[in-house]
From TrEMBL:
<dbReference type="InterPro" id="IPR014729">
    <property type="entry name" value="Rossmann-like_a/b/a_fold"/>
</dbReference>
<comment type="similarity">
    <text>Belongs to the class-I aminoacyl-tRNA synthetase family. TyrS type 1 subfamily.</text>
</comment>
<dbReference type="GO" id="GO:0005829">
    <property type="term" value="C:cytosol"/>
</dbReference>
<dbReference type="InterPro" id="IPR002305">
    <property type="entry name" value="aa-tRNA-synth_Ic"/>
</dbReference>
<feature type="domain" description="RNA-binding S4">
    <location>
        <begin position="342"/>
        <end position="403"/>
    </location>
</feature>
<feature type="binding site">
    <location>
        <position position="230"/>
    </location>
    <ligand>
        <name>ATP</name>
    </ligand>
</feature>
<keyword id="KW-0030">Aminoacyl-tRNA synthetase</keyword>
<dbReference type="InterPro" id="IPR036986">
    <property type="entry name" value="S4_RNA-bd_sf"/>
</dbReference>
<dbReference type="Pfam" id="PF22421">
    <property type="entry name" value="SYY_C-terminal"/>
</dbReference>
<comment type="subunit">
    <text>Homodimer.</text>
</comment>
<dbReference type="InterPro" id="IPR054608">
    <property type="entry name" value="SYY-like_C"/>
</dbReference>
<dbReference type="GO" id="GO:0005524">
    <property type="term" value="F:ATP binding"/>
</dbReference>
<feature type="binding site">
    <location>
        <position position="171"/>
    </location>
    <ligand>
        <name>L-tyrosine</name>
    </ligand>
</feature>
<feature type="short sequence motif" description="'HIGH' region">
    <location>
        <begin position="39"/>
        <end position="48"/>
    </location>
</feature>
<keyword id="KW-0436">Ligase</keyword>
<dbReference type="GO" id="GO:0006437">
    <property type="term" value="P:tyrosyl-tRNA aminoacylation"/>
</dbReference>
<dbReference type="GO" id="GO:0003723">
    <property type="term" value="F:RNA binding"/>
</dbReference>
Amino acid sequence: MKIYDELVARGLIAQVTDEKEIRELVDNGKAVFYIGFDPTADSLHVGHFMALCLMKRLQMAGNRPIALLGGGTGMIGDPSGRSDMRQMMTPETIQHNCDCFKRQMSRFIDFSDDKALMVNNAEWLMDLNYIEFIREIGPHFSVNQMLRAECYKQRMEKGLSFLEFNYMLMQSYDFYELFQRYNCNMQFGGDDQWSNMLGGTDLIRRKLHKDAYAMTINLLLNSEGKKMGKTQSGAVWLDPDKTTPFEFYQYWRNIGDADVLKCLRMLTFLPIEQIDEMDQWEGSQLNQAKEILAYELTGLVHGEEEAKKAEAGAKALFTGGGDAAHMPTTELAEEDFEEGAIDLITLLVKAELAGTRSEARRSIEQGGVSIDGEKIGDIRYQVKKESIGTDGILLKRGKKNFKKICVQ
């Protein structure tokens, strides 16, 4: 199966501008394509993960990826998928975030020997002369068409700032610059970026009278797109200091039954034929499919060794087997105890299983807290230091949030 047909079989392609030409380019390793990453945080998250997997997949087929860091566009902020304006970041913060992105991307993309490029659009955007830019680029954009774009529609009711309104022009100009500098002939992105991507292809065709193409990929978990990469405690990051390999594993292990095969197709590098055989799986077999998904993706992001540890920790927690040493752990110091004990509410907050004391109190009252499998409903419950012992205890809130509690 050629790479374009594989992308279709994996459910990755949402829209393309010129299917015949795009198929020809990617199947023959002639695509020089870019995907943009605005540095809105100091770590990539699972929302970026799909794009990285696509870049890796296409690079393996001989195509050349360009990872575009949005050092310039990050100064404005993409309005797509937003109900309000993004918080403005300082240039120092943006640069720090770009540096963090570079380190993480290198786990997925081979940048050696010019097999891929990493470029920052601050190179051309930060020094633009506004009058020259508007005269050169502005005539090629219809305000009427821009206002019909999906990325702006949802912002119109609450108010769209002129700052954000410029974003489509900035992204389009990125493609224009990459085409001229690096012969970049294709732009990839999520299907929520379609309007912005068309702006770039049209700009190249109108100004340079040359062909450029755009392809959007289906957003993962379309039925729950806004929840992608979110857990009770926040976003799922690729940085192990923000989301541990065990927590990353558990995120994918707990994915919904309806989404597990979709994720296996879109994100893993398992043969499509092997995944297709799982279509008939149900019941406990679906749990096995989730374990395969979690193991494969944890291995991709954190390495094989960390995937094995996470798998062992999960088995220790849920099946009574495996190695409990690799569970997420909170260590208590001597000063955390008062007269040899710590109250359960304080412990839940300390273990980051509850954000506030009132949240912890509600969970206890509602019967959602247990220690070593025993439910605790008393908000005044005290956990004695001696009861934690040398092996620790398992503190659990709800069905999927837990920590091993130990004493230093």
